[in-house]
Amino acid sequence: MARKSRNAAEASSLIDLKEIAIEEPDDGVFDAYSNVVQLNWTPNDVTLRFGQLIQVPNPESPKWGDQYGTLLERAAITLPWHQAKLLRDMLDGIVRNYEQINGELKPLKLPAPPAPIT
């Protein structure tokens, strides 16, 4: 039996995702909003932890002015390192394209609270 060349073995491991059918689970696809992301990692993989910074009422003083910020964890996605690198490259490309069209993304600033109405 003839041995495959190294290039033939490498080429056969490539998958064209554009040609693979997409299937959605019966209960739908999980969807979550996040305005905060944090990373954890091991030698095998990278975990992206997605959260949402929200204001919640103070149980001891449930007034609008006594709310405080908390981080609500929404989802955690774990990827092998190779997929993390692919994600990095995809995000770099899409952000670069966005900035070419819309200008540089800059850190967001919050406005000061409005003055009381008198």
Average of the residue pLDDT scores: 90
Low-confidence stretches: none
Helical coverage, percent range: 10-25%
Percent strand equals: 25-35%
Notes on the structure:
This protein has 118 residues and is an alpha+beta fold. It has a domain at 32-102. The chain has two helices and three strands, in the order αβββα. A hairpin with a 3-residue loop joins β1 and β2. The longest helix is centred in the last third of the chain and has 22 residues, at 81-102. It starts with 5 loop residues before the first helix and ends in a 16-residue tail after the last helix.
Q: Which SSEs are present, and which pair or pack?
A:
Layout: H1 6-12, E1 36-41, E2 45-56, E3 68-80, H2 81-102
Antiparallel strand pairs: 1-2, 2-3
Brief digest:
By secondary structure, the protein is an alpha+beta fold. It is built from two helices and three strands, in the order αβββα.
List keywords for this structure.
alpha+beta, extended, 25% helix, 26% strand, 3-stranded antiparallel sheet, 118 residues, 3 strands
